[in-house]
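Q: I'm building a small set of examples for a reading group on sequence design. Run inverse folding on the following structure and report the sequence directly after it, with nothing in between.
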């Protein structure tokens, strides 16, 4: 029976991709994220992104997403908080979601390889 190597991150059952990790956890490594950020800042990437976002299919998908209740609630929350910041009612200097999300979610970096 053939063995399939899986991700080293505890609880992750995804297929191995590189450096002992699945593609999702590999993409979450600081080195990969830094490389991605460097690429995203290049003029070639910015031009490609602008071309992609200008396609009718992409615009339609964005419009569908913007029409979802969750997106509308998030937008309303964002503008309410921005107004509060402007009036000095809130101590927060940035929107609450900034700097959160996938940036803090990398759990597998220091885990030892299985024997
Ligand atoms: Zn994984």
């Amino acid at each position: 029976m053939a063995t399939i190597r899986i991700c080293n991150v505890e609880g992750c059952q995804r297929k191995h991709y590189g450096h002992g990790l699945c593609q999702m956890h590999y993409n979450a490594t600081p080195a990969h994220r830094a490389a991605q950020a460097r690429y995203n800042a290049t003029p070639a990437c910015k031009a490609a992104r602008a071309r992609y976002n200008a396609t009718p299919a992409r615009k339609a998908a964005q419009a569908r997403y913007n029409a979802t209740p969750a997106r509308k609630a998030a937008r309303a929350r964002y503008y309410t908080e921005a107004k509060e910041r402007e009036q000095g009612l809130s101590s927060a200097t940035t929107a609450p979601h900034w700097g959160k999300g996938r940036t803090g979610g990398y759990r597998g970096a220091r885990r030892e390889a299985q024997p």
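The chain is about 50% helix and 0% strand.
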